[in-house]
Amino acid sequence: MTFAEHLFQLRTAHKLTQRGIAEKIGISWRAYQNYELGLREPQLSTLIALADFYDISLDELACRQR
What we know:
With 66 residues, this protein is an all-alpha fold. It has helices at residues 3-13, 18-25, 29-37, 44-54, 58-61. 65% of the residues lie in helices and 0% in strands. The longest helix is centred in the N-terminal third of the chain and has 11 residues, at 3-13. It is globular.
């Protein structure tokens, strides 16, 4: 699963809109949309905000496995 797919899956599992999650973590809706579409990658501060919001590790957020 790609990072963009995982973002989509997390958001829909929590029944949030793109605008809703963007507001909750303090970024623009367009920026979040670009992350979910795989057009851009978020900065570390945004990744941390997303991981904190979903209460998961950065590794889990990034679909990283050892």
